[in-house]
Amino acid sequence: MSEERNGTRRGGPRKAQEIFDATLDLLAEKGYEGLTIEGVAQRSGVNKTTLYRWWPSKGALLGAALIGARQLELTPPDTGSLEEDLEALLGTMTTLLTERPASDIAVAVLGAVTHSPELASHVKDFFADRIAREQVVFDRAVARGEIAADADPLLLMDLLAGAAWVRIVLRQLPLEKGFVARTVRTVLKGARDVG
Amino acid sequence: MSEERNGTRRGGPRKAQEIFDATLDLLAEKGYEGLTIEGVAQRSGVNKTTLYRWWPSKGALLGAALIGARQLELTPPDTGSLEEDLEALLGTMTTLLTERPASDIAVAVLGAVTHSPELASHVKDFFADRIAREQVVFDRAVARGEIAADADPLLLMDLLAGAAWVRIVLRQLPLEKGFVARTVRTVLKGARDVG
User: Fold this and answer.
1) Shared domain check, B62 and B79
2) Most buried of the four, A5, A138, B59, B111, by CB within 10 Å?
3) CA-based nearest residue to B155, from A175, A35, A39
4) Which of B90, B93, B109, B194 to mutate to test the interface with A (most CBs of A within 10 A)?
5) How confident is the model at residue B102 (pLDDT cuts 50, 70, 90)?
6) Of A5, A38, A68, which residue is a domain's last?
7) Residues B126, B30: one domain?
8) pLDDT beyond 50 at A7
9) Are A171 and B131 a contacting pair at CB < 8 A?
10) Secondary structure of B85-112 in the HEC alphabet?
11) How far is the alpha carbon of B108 from chain A, nearest alpha carbon, in Å?
12) A124 and A96, same domain (yes or no)
């Protein structure tokens, strides 16, 4: 948790971390419909009027929480190997999509995309933040000469993340043993040989 | 539209096709909340009691419509080349996800996964039906010697479909020119060289 993200430096209330974590806890427990500013105030011990001062709606609060909460925190791996870094990233993703409470958050986020344009725009910001943070994994791989400088990290992450989302959330099938390693190997091999 | 699918052979009311099409039209127009058996009856010109006789709930009707309706119909391509077949499949998918009214259906289906276990189970059936229909594309490619007999069509389709879902629905980014061809080339190259 960097100081830039806990709200004090970027402009946010004290206890921003507690507020964000409480917001995603409540989303996981009660779904978007059951999420209320009142509930977040109670859970985080922060006055409701303070919350409204910073976030005019629960949609705005959820948007901030998706990026700031500890439950979805992403520290880019740095194993020294692109393959292992991608396995770590995809492994984290499959955990988020299969293990509660994170999987409840993922499903609620998915529902949120379809719920309103405002929420869809927060989900868009969340995914933009993810790829921005994942970029360093590819920068290091280019520096090590593991992948071409014109490789397309967005396409590679879409393939990896997409396989997990489709298999787990849409098909609702269990992941076979070795899914993460095989998926990464397939995508990486493809990426290395396609211009 | 095969005779097996229009309801008369599999056990369904007359005008099953009109019923399924009307169900998805209404889903696209009004979302799941606004979809009613009454509305489907009006749109399709079929008596409401007939609908209830075949499908006890709107969830059950939607489940049948996802598989039977013309809007999501999938005729597996047969171009003589796996690469071109997969481009056709992914091209159809990106069209379904980006062009109305199909994209409204896709978003509503996505919402449905999160709405109730019953709907989630219909979505699961829909995706099981898709991969079963797509299998022939891979069978033909194996017969032509284009891909190894132990290639994993499920993983390949998850990668292709997943890239489209993540890029379009989650990231909400436009598809760059050449997305379909490049995605297929990457996945196919990866699949050919990974055991």
Assistant:
1) no
2) A138
3) A175
4) B194
5) confident
6) A68
7) no
8) no
9) yes
10) HHHHHHHHHHHHHHCCCHHHHHHHHHHH
11) 7
12) yes
